[in-house]
Amino acid sequence: MDKEKQTQEVGKMIDGWLDEIDSEPDVVNWGDSRIQAIDAIIDSFVEIAIVGLDKKPDQWNDNLLQEVMFSRFMLLLEADEKTKEMYQAIPFALKKLFKYLQKQGIIKNGQHLVDWVNVNADQLQSLYNPKFDKFYRRLFDDMRRSGINTSDKEAVDKFTKNYLNVHPELGIDLYKDDSKD
Q1: d(CA 132, CA 172)
Q2: How far apart are CA 64 and CA 53, in angstroms?
Q3: Model pTM?
Q4: I need a labelling partner for 133 at 20 to 30 A (CA). Which of 34, 79, 140, 178 fits?
Q5: Torsion of CA 75, 79, 80, 86, to 10 degrees
């Protein structure tokens, strides 16, 4: 199946999941913006996992969660989706997804994935930092211009290490405290 058709099929599947998740009692009474944030998180996560990394839900594990959330998630979001409210909703959204998929019999390790989210909740909620976002967008753009296959973890790691060796100031600037300037 080609990527475009796969993306469309995955999109339909996600829409079905979101319809059911959004109608659950602990979601339905939230405001539209919070529900949109939850939907964006789930949609982005599933798209990256299934279409981008070619991992079906029954193949999801700690390594995949870490790869998606700490390496690729930020790159897929649109600028207007990157709000504090959205980042605060990440743990809730992922746990809703994993519990829903477990209940539907789509995954068997739902509780383990929920546990991973619980352990990493603080890091997930603090993912958004404008400096890091700018850095990773630039890095990702340079990877694409250089012809790096961004689904090849080894190639991405090698490129990133080289990139930081060539541009050490960019790595230093990420951790520089601008409030002291």
Answers
A1: 11
A2: 9
A3: 0.73
A4: 34
A5: 40
